[in-house]
Design goal:
By secondary structure, the protein is α+β, with helices and mostly antiparallel strands. It folds into 2 domains: 94 residues, Homing Intron 3 (I-Ppo) Encoded Endonuclease, Chain A, CATH 3.90.75.20; 42 residues, no CATH class. Helices cover 29% and strands 24% of the residues. The chain is built from 5 helices and 9 strands, in the order βββββββαββαααα. Helix 4 packs across helix 5. The longest helix is centred in the middle third of the chain and has 10 residues.
């Protein structure tokens, strides 16, 4: 455990993720935001995993990411946290399936899975396909070369 002053409030932080207000001796309440546990300390909301990392990981740097090794955003035990670069964190999210924004799951997707598969097998000029599906020639090329819509089954 470690006692720190954060946002002008003295708190006790435990390695397992429990935080106690030192003045009231009551646990700080948490809420879930974007899948992460957050708590209000003074007038500021903070992510629990960042507070724990700040207290217990020697290489903590506010400019770097705090990664949940097991991919469980609610597991804030110190043994499950590590400091990594944003790039490494993004790679970890893709590798573990946490950042699955491929195909129709991508908020910016202009096509359905079925449409992407149709485009992949079409034997027409790219310009014609692009006009038919109202997308760019570049997008057609990315689909045909499996750079986008990697889950196309042919």
């Amino acid at each position: 455990m470690k006692t720190i002053t954060y946002n002008n409030v003295e708190i006790i932080v435990y390695e397992n993720g429990i935080i106690i207000d030192n003045k009231t001796q009551k646990p700080i309440k948490f809420h879930i935001s974007n899948g992460y546990l957050r708590c209000r300390i003074g007038s500021k909301n903070e992510y629990l995993h960042r507070l724990i990392a700040m207290c217990f990981l020697e290489n903590f740097n506010s400019c770097l990411s705090v990664n949940h090794k097991d991919g469980n955003k609610l597991n804030n035990d110190i043994n499950n946290l590590e400091i990594i670069s944003l790039s490494e964190n993004t790679k970890h999210a893709h590798k573990t399936g946490l950042n699955n924004n491929k195909g129709e799951l991508n908020k910016s997707a202009l096509l359905t899975q079925k449409q992407a598969e149709e485009i992949f097998i079409l034997n027409k000029p790219y310009k014609e396909i692009a006009k038919e599906y109202n997308i760019s020639i570049t997008m057609i090329s990315l689909i045909k070369n499996k750079k986008n819509w990697l889950c196309i089954h042919n």
